Amino acid sequence: MIFVVFMRDYNLYTKFMINLTKPILILSVIVGFLCGDTQSSKDIYAGDTYTEIEVAEGGTVVGNVKYGGELAALSLNLYADMQVPDTSKPTSEKLIVSSINNGLKNAVVSITNIKQGKKKTVPLIHPLVDQQKNTFVPGTLPILAGTTVDFLNGDEELHNIHTRSTKNQPFNLGTTYKQRISRTFEYPEVIKLTCDIHKKSYAWIIVLDNPYFDVTDRNGYFEICDIPPGTYKFQVWHEELGNLEKEVTVHPKEITNIEFNYAQNW
Amino acid sequence: MKPKVLLGKVGLWSATAVASAAVMLCIAPTTARALNVPTEVTELGKNTYKKYCSPCHGEEGKGDGPLARSMLPKPRDFTRGAYKFRTTPSGSLPTDEDIFRTISYGVPNSTMIPWDILTEEQRLSVIPVLKSFSEAFEVRKPDAPVDVGLEVRPTERTIAEGKKIYEEKLECWKCHGVEGRGDGPSAGEQEDDFGFPIKPFDFTTGKFKGGNSSRDVYLRFTTGLNGTPMPSFAKELSDEQRWYLTHYVMSLVKPEDKEKK
Predict the structure, then answer these.
(1) Do A31 and A66 reside in the same domain of the chain?
(2) A85 in the same domain as A6
(3) Which of A172, A176, A198 sits opposite B224 (nearest CB)?
(4) A23 preceded by a cis bond (ω within 30 of 0)
(5) For residue B195, what are the β-bridge partners?
(6) pLDDT tens sequence across A127-180
(7) CB–CB contact A40 B189 (8 Å)
(8) What is the pLDDT, as a whole number, of residue A103?
(9) Partner residue facing B189 (CB), from A163, A175, A199
(10) Whether residue A188 is found in the same domain as residue A234
(11) Residues whose CB is less than 8 angstroms from the CB of residue A126 and which lie 6 or more positions away in sequence, other chains included
């Protein structure tokens, strides 16, 4: 009916449409932007689906990450025959394996599909990444998203701290002795830190979106506690050996033992 | 006051007003005008990118176009949002003006030519296309540009102070070499974020990649070059010290090399 009226008075119709289309266009663009924004930020913050609850009868998972490969397969030492100053010799190896139980150091264990659990508490005392004798200490640092990390230059010479990340703002800053830099990491990401002046030194910062994670000690042991009972996917990340996954059922107020083993042909 | 004198005074004042207005117009910077960057990807931008940029930078902005193989330094991979020549602090995304500047003036000592053969509209239309390649532009916003203060007057003293910073405090020579030829002890092992080898800059050539003015050189080590090993020294140096270092670095340029040829 309205259409017919409009058709009769074409001028009126066009006027009406022109008057109407502009606000509709603007509105749709705005709505589109809003929708797009919420969606994309949800993708990034996987933590939005994570709800914090009181965990009264949580279980604990302890375990061991082992390396089954041969130790002779360590990274090649290209500087073996060269005369290089001590400062540029590599001090960190990619695989640090305990000689007692083949435990793998600096592997990060985390739960990937947890929906609810203990409170996300960002440490008030900032975790510290120190540069001592051209090496980053610690070499692998798992943190909760939103944590501020302090970077310190403990050597009496110039270093730089260079991060490669996309979502978190990367930075590349030169630091002299005792310079301290604080940076906050907001988004879950695996970030490599390097010092370009001493090419051999690097470190990893693993930003995770839930508080259930741990890094293995020098014998490959880790411990994650206060997990609400249920079945979860546990993941191990190692810079050289990649990821391993395992489903583990957590029972209330019990300690579950698990073991991850990187096979030979990794 | 006699009317004649009053008239004379008014005449004098109006004359000065007109003269000063004229002077103001002459002095007014002609370059600093707002760029009209389209907010969304346009057809023009897509076509311009496909025709002029994608042979090197790749159809999806990954820096893997068919011509990229034979190039070093490699064409920029836009997917990380890491741009070298910026006015914003280290790690930050570039402003639209920064991208426009690099497109318009090119990068000396590389295969990026000044794209002044394109119209300004074409160059501007490419900017949203470049941004669309990286998710970084959705998540982050560029920080405010670094405030470049007034330049300290270059003298013998400032150059000597700059030399001290170059050789002792920041040890720039470790990569750039004692004479600034880009041949320091750590020079050979440098690589960029994408794993390609990269050479520290040779100052003696005098063709600074981000521009030849002292302001440009000042900005390079204040903001660092994203995606490369070159860090920012914003935390380490005071404003004056940065000008000292600028003067020293610019004094390393050796014009006599050209005469020999």
Answers:
(1) no
(2) no
(3) A172
(4) no
(5) none
(6) 999 988 888 888 899 999 999 999 998 888 888 888 888 888 888 888 888 888
(7) no
(8) 86
(9) A199
(10) yes
(11) A147, A148, A149, A150, A182
The length of chain A, given as a count of residues: 266
**Same-domain pairing of A18 and A57:** no
- Domain membership flag for residue A135: yes
When the pLDDT of each residue in chain A is averaged and rounded to a whole number, the result is 76
Contact B152, B158 (CB under 8 A): yes
Pair of tokens at residue B13: 């004042």
- 0.80 cut: is pTM over it? no
Q: What is residue B9's predicted lDDT score, i.e. its pLDDT?
A: 74
Tally of domains in chain A: 2
Who's near A203: CB < 8 A, 6+ residues apart?
Answer: A129, A136, A138, A139, A140, A141, A192, A193
- A5 and A120 part of one domain: no
Helix H or strand E encompassing A174: strand A172-175
Q: How many CB atoms lie within 10 A of CB A249?
A: 11
Contacts of A213 (CB under 8 A, 6+ apart): A108, A109, A110, A111, A142, A144, A206, A224
Report if residue A241 sits inside a domain: yes
CA distance to partner chain B, nearest, from residue A249 (Å):
36
- Chain B residues whose C-beta is within 8 A of a chain A C-beta are 79-82, 90-92, 134-136, 138-140, 169-171, 174-175, 186, 189-190, 193, 224-226, 228-236
Which pLDDT band, with edges at 50, 70 and 90, does A264 fall under? Answer: low
Are A69 and A195 found together in one domain? Answer: yes
Check CB contact under 8 Å for A169 and B140.
Answer: yes
Q: Give chain B positions within 8 Å (CB) of A169.
A: 91-92, 140
3-class SS of residue A234: strand
Beta-carbon separation of A172 and B226 below 8 A: yes
Token reading at A154: 């403990």
Q: Answer whether residue A44 is part of any domain.
A: no
Q: Which residues form the domain of A29?
A: 1-38
Q: Who among B79, B91, B175 is closest to A170 (CB)?
A: B91
Q: Which residues contact B157 (CB under 8 A, 6 or more apart)?
A: none
A259 and A135 in a single domain? The answer is yes
* pLDDT tens digits along B223-237: 989 888 888 888 888
